[in-house]
Design a protein that fits this description.
about 180 residues, Serine Threonine Protein Phosphatase 5, Tetratricopeptide repeat, about 0% strand, mainly alpha
C-alpha cells in the first residue's frame, strides 16, 4: 500500500512538472515567434544593456521601420558607447539615414564606424556606394581600395575601383 501511494505521489509530481514546464515552453515560444518579438522581450528583461537594443533595431530595420530602428540604435549607443558592436551600430545607423534620404548624416555615421574599426569592410563599402551615387568618384575609389587592403581578393571592390577610375577619366576636362 505504501509503495503504491509513493508511486502515485511521484506520478503527480511528474505530471505537475511536465505541465509547468510545458506552459513555460509555450510562453517562450510566443516570445520567440520571430526576431521582433524575441528582442522586444529581451529589451523588457534587460533594459540597461545595449545588445538587445541593437538587435531590436535590426529587427525594426528589416521590417522597414527605420525611425524605430534609429531610436533603438541611439539607445544602445547611449547605454554603452564603447560596446563591442559600436562600429556595427554606427554602420547600421548610416544605412538607416541613407534610407531616410539623409546622405550627409549617413556619411558621418559610416565615417564614425571606420574611425572605431578602420577595417570595417561594410562601412567602407556603404560609404563608397554613397560617394559613387554622389559622383564623388575619387572618394568612392578610396573606400573600395580600403576594402582591398583588408580583403585583396574582393572581386566586387576590384570592379568598383575600375568603375571609379573609368568615371574619373570620363569626367576629366578635355583640352581640345
Amino acid at each position: 500500500m505504501r509503495q503504491s501511494l509513493s508511486l502515485y505521489v511521484e506520478f503527480l509530481v511528474l505530471i505537475s512538472l511536465v505541465t509547468v514546464f510545458g506552459v513555460a515552453t509555450h510562453q517562450r515560444n510566443l516570445a520567440w515567434k520571430d526576431d521582433f518579438s524575441l528582442w522586444q522581450d529581451v529589451v523588457k528583461k534587460s533594459p540597461n544593456k545595449a545588445r538587445p537594443y541593437i538587435w531590436l533595431g535590426l529587427a525594426y530595420q528589416r521590417k522597414g521601420l527605420v525611425d524605430e530602428a534609429i531610436a533603438r540604435f541611439h539607445k544602445a549607443l547611449t547605454l554603452e558607447p564603447n560596446h563591442a558592436d559600436t562600429a556595427d551600430t554606427y554602420n547600421n545607423l548610416g544605412l538607416c539615414c541613407f534610407d531616410k534620404g539623409w546622405p550627409g548624416l549617413a556619411i558621418k555615421h559610416f565615417e564614425h564606424a571606420i574611425r572605431i574599426a578602420p577595417n570595417h569592410i561594410h562601412a567602407h563599402n556603404n560609404l563608397g556606394f554613397i560617394y559613387l551615387q554622389m559622383k564623388r568618384y575619387r572618394e568612392a575609389m578610396n573606400e573600395f581600395k580600403a576594402i582591398l587592403r583588408v580583403d585583396p581578393h574582393n572581386k566586387m571592390a576590384k570592379r568598383l575601383v575600375i568603375l571609379c577610375q573609368r568615371n574619373l577619366i570620363q569626367d576629366r576636362p578635355r583640352n581640345d
